[in-house]
Every structure is written in structure tokens, then in C-alpha cells.
Amino acid sequence: MSQWDMNNDIERVLYSEDDIAEAAKRVGTELAADYEGRTPVIISVLKGAVLWTVDVMRYMQYAEVEFIDVSSYHGGIASSGEVDLIVDLQTDIAGRDVIIMEDIVDTGRSLKFMMALLEQRGAKSIKVASLLDKKEGRVVDANVDYVGFDVPKAFVVGYGLDYKQLYRNLPYVGVLKQAVYDPEHADLVDTTDITPEH
Ligand SMILES: O=P(O)(O)OC[C@H]1O[C@H](OP(=O)(O)OP(=O)(O)O)[C@H](O)[C@@H]1O
Ligand code: HPA
């Protein structure tokens, strides 16, 4: 195997390409049924949710898609606690049914920030569809309505999720090897006793 291979940096795969394709079909089909007769605005959260968004929306009917970018991680593995709006929506969502598409809800800070913003702008309804829900990571209240997988408390990468902007293009979700992290952050990552919940 070539040394120049991202797969070498992965400790273990949690959700395979097939697992994710199945989850996208399940969530997309459920959304199609729940939004029958309505045209929701899908709000895809850059950059991580792009792959999940396009895979899920293939199973839906009439829907618009918009992008937003909020950031609390600034590239590393620890949430900074402060959320910034980096890229705003290009449309008015007042009176609209919106679906926030996330790759992961972890501390909940990004989602809480977006929920407040969309409520303030007069969204008629707001639901959340996330590939991963890391419930153990929550530090603020944030609820996910449509979940791909409940993910254990470990820093994961792949299928949109990054570490320092890399690994988003892996087709699966996995745990990064400890050795890949900056030594000063090593204590923030727990890769032991991780059991996939599927
Ligand atoms: O629940 P939280 O602790 O707020 O974490 C979840 C957020 O963090 C990640 O985005 P990030 O800010 O890293 O941007 P990215 O999608 O561009 O990687 C992820 O895509 C979520 O939006
Ligand atoms: O586990 C994670 N991996 C990548 N990005 C993230 N943003 C919040 N949690 C994570």
C-alpha cells in the first residue's frame, strides 16, 4: 500500500460507505414523506454537511437548498465555545419550513446558534437532520429530529468531517489514530472502548 494514503491514519471505521448510503436513504425517504405537499428550504451547514446533504436530498421531492457556514472549531478538535457566522443564507426564510442538514451535532453550540438565528428571521418550522448525533458531547440543549447514527464520544473524521480541513473526502466515518493529533491535544481524544451503536 502507498504511504500517501489517508486510510493509514484511521484507527477504526465506525460507519462504512454502505452504512452511510443506507442512512441517507432512510432519512431522505422519511423527510420526503413528512414534507409531502410542502417545499422546504434545506439549509446545509458548510463545509461538513455537503456530502450528507446531496445524498439525502436525492430521496426528497420539491426542496430548495441553501448554505450557511458557522464555525466554532477553527480547524482543531476542541470547540472554542464561540460561534461565528461565516457565510450567510442567500434567501429570506421568513414563513418557510426549514431543514438544517448537519454532519454532526456535538456540543450543540453551532446548532443552538443557528436555531436562534432562523427563529429570529421568522422560519415557520425548523427541523434538524444530522448524519451523526454525539449526545455525550452536549454542553447546551440541542435536539436532532432525524439521525443517521448516534456516535460515541470520540473525534471522528470522514464523509465531510475534518481534522484540520483534511479527511472530508473519505467515503466512510472513522476514528483518527492518536498519533495524528498534535501532541498538545492528545489528552482531549479518547479512542478507547469505542463501540459503534449499529
Ligand atoms: O455541536 P458542535 O460542537 O457545535 O459541533 C458541530 C459543528 O462542528 C462542525 O463544524 P465546523 O465548525 O468544524 O466546520 P466545518 O463543517 O467546516 O468543518 C460540524 O460540521 C458542525 O457544524
Ligand atoms: O468529532 C468530530 N469530528 C469532526 N468535526 C467535529 N465537529 C464537532 N465534532 C466533530
From TrEMBL:
Cofactors, names only: Mg(2+)
Protein name per its UniProtKB record: Hypoxanthine phosphoribosyltransferase
Lineage: Bacteria, Bacillati, Bacillota, Bacilli, Lactobacillales
Function: Purine salvage pathway enzyme that catalyzes the transfer of the ribosyl-5-phosphate group from 5-phospho-alpha-D-ribose 1-diphosphate (PRPP) to the N9 position of the 6-oxopurines hypoxanthine and guanine to form the corresponding ribonucleotides IMP (inosine 5'-monophosphate) and GMP (guanosine 5'-monophosphate), with the release of PPi.
PANTHER family linked: HYPOXANTHINE PHOSPHORIBOSYLTRANSFERASE (PTHR43340:SF1), HYPOXANTHINE-GUANINE PHOSPHORIBOSYLTRANSFERASE (PTHR43340)
Main location: cytoplasm
GO cellular component terms listed in the entry, alphabetical order: cytosol
NCBIfam families in the cross-refs: HGPRTase
EC number, UniProt record: 2.4.2.8
Pathway(s): Purine metabolism; GMP biosynthesis via salvage pathway; GMP from guanine: step 1/1; Purine metabolism; IMP biosynthesis via salvage pathway; IMP from hypoxanthine: step 1/1
Pfam short name (any one): Pribosyltran
Catalytic function, reaction form: GMP + diphosphate = guanine + 5-phospho-alpha-D-ribose 1-diphosphate; IMP + diphosphate = hypoxanthine + 5-phospho-alpha-D-ribose 1-diphosphate
TM region positions: none
Single biological process term from Gene Ontology: purine ribonucleoside salvage
